[in-house]
């Protein structure tokens, strides 16, 4: 087995590119569109596809953050909508212009969920957003120190491929579940529909959209995913009117053209941050707040790391050792997204796995992210339009991308148990636990333990052993919190 280098990654120019093509203008030269084998049309189409796949965040994040804080205060829905669109626009455009990678950034649902359910009930909203700013700044420090990039480059190549596969499975299960094709809460952990059978027009439209995209892909039609999303949305609009469906039938938001597509942004949450209040006696307290920040850093660090590896590999931006061009810049923007999201009032921002939909439609450069961010900026004034694409249609794109990312399985030597077992755990635990971090953690811990058990404990390298220690703490966080008296 070939050992994986743990040295820092190459410079931006060392990444694999298509055969050298002369730039076709300043835009092409800056984003290296031709050099990466892409076109202006591919980047614009990919950026639009990514936005359509993740537009739901403008609707969903305000719902997640709609609860009351310790004082009983609630954040305004219009303010949350503006904050969500603003933070996504700023961070995604920065990712495109600075990082030059086709990765979109928006409010992380895991972060928003943790802030809403675990932090805000014991703090004010300003203090909760202050924790987001702190965890974002801590990740930025890890990037500036070079540690985050060294960790990413220090992960063995088979595990990087496994991370890509695992994210593909994770994306697919998200799509199936959001569409109502796969159901939870029945007599079995998962089932086909709510009781072993599919029900309703929305799930049928999901299936039709999915099959349409698969057929277009099989016929090598350019823009297959975007065409499928547009066609599925059109069918959904017609069916919704003809069948008289309700928002409940669609799982919360029915596809219909808004009476007025224009809405005025409300920036009331911007800057509403209490940076260290959560550490005081009127917040969580020093220990509990520190544990909360550690949890947010861990989730933000490794969720984004795994997504960047997975989407970057799918986009063909990684070299033979799984290292990406301009990685440190992308990691810096992702870390800054935590602070930007907290400052905006939208909670911490993170790279979205839905970025893979744009990659599947041809995106290879940061121009696609700039397009996605630009559309999020438009949503500041046209947020009602985001509700037109039903979640069932967007979910079909996620399943398609999941199928594409499975192709990385061919790069893993499944006959070598020393790497196959950690790769297997990485792949399956992401969808089974609904956590990217859990999959990465299981892969890292099992890899180092197996190497040690076979007498090759030096082979993983110091960084992998450090990661193992961190992930052991991650898995044992509940008893550790109990020991520290944190509830």
Describe this structure in words.
This protein has 19 helices and 4 strands. The chain is globular, with a radius of gyration of 22 Å. Helix 10 runs antiparallel to helix 15. The termini are far apart. The strands form 2 sheets. It has a two-stranded antiparallel sheet with strand order 1-4. A two-stranded antiparallel sheet has the order 2-3. The longest helix has 29 residues. Helix content is 61%, strand content 2%. The protein is mainly α.
Question: Topology, pairings included?
Answer:
Layout: H1 26-31, H2 40-54, H3 56-64, H4 77-99, E1 105-107, H5 109-119, H6 125-144, H7 147-154, H8 157-179, E2 182-184, E3 190-192, H9 201-218, H10 224-243, H11 286-314, H12 327-344, E4 349-351, H13 355-360, H14 366-382, H15 391-405, H16 417-433, H17 436-453, H18 462-475, H19 477-484
Helix pairs in contact: 2-14, 3-4, 4-12, 4-14, 5-11, 6-11, 6-12, 8-11, 8-15, 8-16, 8-17, 9-10, 9-15, 10-15, 11-12, 16-17, 17-18
